[in-house]
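Recall the central idea of this unit: under ordinary conditions, the amino acid sequence of a chain determines the structure it adopts. In this exercise we apply that idea directly, starting from the sequence alone.
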Amino acid sequence: MDAMKRALQSSQPEIMNTDQGVQFTSAAFIGLLEDKNIRISMDGRGRAFDNIFIERLWRTVKYDEVYIHQYTTVSDARRHLERYFVLTEQAPLTEAPDRIAAELRLRLEKAVQKRISSDEIGCYLSGGLDSSVMAALARPHVKRLWTVAAGVAGAPDLAYAREVADFIKSDHTEVIVTFEDHATRPA
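Accordingly, the structure predicted from this sequence is:
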């Protein structure tokens, strides 16, 4: 709370986005934001796809913009990032969206099939979209598909990975990782 109060003394956002951790749902935390007329947006349980999108966006920004330019001042960073995020006007589509989607799927299927070197392969299922799509596209081209997912017990991503594995009929393994696994890991 003290850190939030100090931060709000120098700047106040229009919207505060948090997860649903107990520290962010307390009456004191919410009251502080409401007193400052700051709207509250909370990530819902299981919103892994939101996190995946945001993390992928910022990873792309870092590698495609920030690391290349190595800004020396805040104003330099602001100027470059504003230019990076400006959306240029796109020409109208000349093909039907269904046709574009079909062509994209065909190209993805060919790319995945080209890289399959055995009739038995394994895939990591993170519970996210990328790994799910790749495993699903590979499935028709192999006799046996093993999938594995790793995470903490009850993690939504494990459930998503399990759902995909069931759907594509893979031989699926889940690895449950505990705090003790990390704490006792050799250095």
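The chain has three domains: 2-42, 53-85, 97-183.
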